[in-house]
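Researcher: First entry.
Model:
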Amino acid sequence: MNDLRQLRHFVALAEHGHFARAAEAVHLSQPALSRSIQALESSLGCNLVDRHSRGISLTAHGELVLEHARRLLAGSRALSNAVSQLGNLSSGELRLGAGPYPAARLVPQALGQFAGRHPRVRVQLLIDNWQQLRSRLLNDEIELFIADTREFHDDPQLQVTALQSHHGVLFCRPQHPLCQRQPLSPGDLNEFPLAGTQMPVEVDRLLQRLGDGENPLSIQCDNFMVLKELVSTSDVLSLAPWDVVAADVQAGRLVTLRLAGDPALARSAYGIVSRAGHSLSPAAEQLQQIICAQDGQTKPA
C-alpha cells in the first residue's frame, strides 16, 4: 500500500497543477516526483492524472483519491499533534477557524492568552463564513471553529458549545447624513448602500423586512475589519453584534443608528463548534477553555 509521502506528493501536484511547481513545493526533483506519482498510481491500480502540455488535470479516480488523501494527511497531523502535545503543550500546531464577527474581538483576545501560555505551539487561523468552516471541519482541515451556530443545532455531525449572545446594531461613521434624521424608516436606509457578511437565514429574513421584501445588502464581505474601514470612510452602512463595535462606538469612531419603532435586530449566536464524537487535541481543549472563560467575563449586551 502507498505511504503518506506519496499522498503528500499527489496532493501537492493536484494543488499546483504542474509537476515542476509541485516538485519545488515538496523539495523533490521533477523526475523523483513523477516516479512517486507513478508508484501511487500503480499501487492503486488506476490513473490519477491526465498529463498535457499545460500541466495536469485530475481524472475521476484522482478526484476521489484527493479527497481521501487530504483526510488521511489531516488525520496524520492530528495524531502527531496529540502525541507531541500530551502533557506539556511545548510543540505541535493548532488549526482553527473563526467567523467574521468572533474574529474581530473574541478570538484574537483568546489567542493572545493562548500564545502567552504556549508560545511554541504553532497556530493557524482561518477566517471564513460558517458554511465554509463547517466543510473544512468535516474535512479535518481545522479542529474547531467559532462562528454563528444557529444553522447547526440539529446537525448530528457537530458538537456546539454556545457562547454569550449580543444584540445587533446598525452603524455608520459619525458624520453620516442619517445621524441627523433618526429614528430612521426603511426608506431612509434604502438611500444608502448596506454592507455585511453572509447572513444566517434568520438575519436575512429580518433584512428583507427592513428592505421592503428584498435583500438590501449592496456589498457582501466576510472580513469584518474591511467592513469597518469601509463604513468609517464612506456613507456605507453596516450591521453587527454590539460586542464587535462597542469599543469603536465608545471611542467615537463609529455611531449606531436608531430605527423607527425600535425593531429588534437579530442577536448573535456565537458558539464553539467541533466534530461530534471526536476528541480535541490538548491545544484545542486549552483554547476552548480560554474562550469560554473569557466569554464569561464579558458583559452580554
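Researcher: Second entry.
Model:
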Amino acid sequence: MIHVVTAENMQDYAGALDQAFRLRHRVFVEELGWSNLARPDRREIDEFDDEHAIHLLALDETESVIGYSRLLPTTRPYLLPMVLPQLCEGAAPSGAHIVEWGRICVAECARTSGRRLNPTALALMTAIVEWGLPRGITSFISEMPTSWILRLLQLHLRAMPLGLPHEIEGEEIVAVEAAFDGRSLRQLQNKRGDIRSVLAPPRVSFARLAS
C-alpha cells in the first residue's frame, strides 16, 4: 500500500524514509548517473526535502520500500522554477490545488518488463489522485520523458506540456501539468483492476497514544 508521510507523522516512518532516500540514490545517482546528486552517505536528499514535502512510500508486506515519489506544494519554491526553469515557458504554475510530483522511482525487486505500466508506479499515481481530491488538489506538475504524456492521457489525466522538451542527462524531458478528477480515479482503478483504496490507514504511534 501507499503510505503518505508528512511532517506530522514523519517520526513513525524514520526507517522507511531512510530506505527511500537510499533508493533515490541507487536510482538517480548510481543507475541514471546524476552525479551532482551524489552524497557520501548514499542517501539522495535535496533542499526540497523539508517540512513541506509529502513523501509517498510504497511498502511491501515486510515493510520494505519498493517505490517512492515526492509531492511539493507549488505555493512555495519548488523544483521546476528553481532548478529546471528552461522547461517552462512563462511563469511556473502555482496554487493550493497544484502539487509537483517528482523523484519517482521503483526498487529493482518491484520492476516489471513489457509495455504494461508498472503496478507500483500505477499505485503511486493513484495515490496522488485518491489523496489529493478530498483536499482540493486537482493537478500535478511533473518533469518527465516525453513518452509519458500519452500514458497520462490514457489514464484520463489531462496532460498539457508547459514548454518544449529539453535533453537532460541524455533523455528528452518535458514539464507537464496534469489535471485530474473523479474520472481519472475511476480509470486508474480500472487499470489496476481493483477499486479498493491504495492508501494505507494512518499509523498510530505509541508516543502519540501516550500524549
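Model: Note on the second entry: The longest strand covers residues 65-73.
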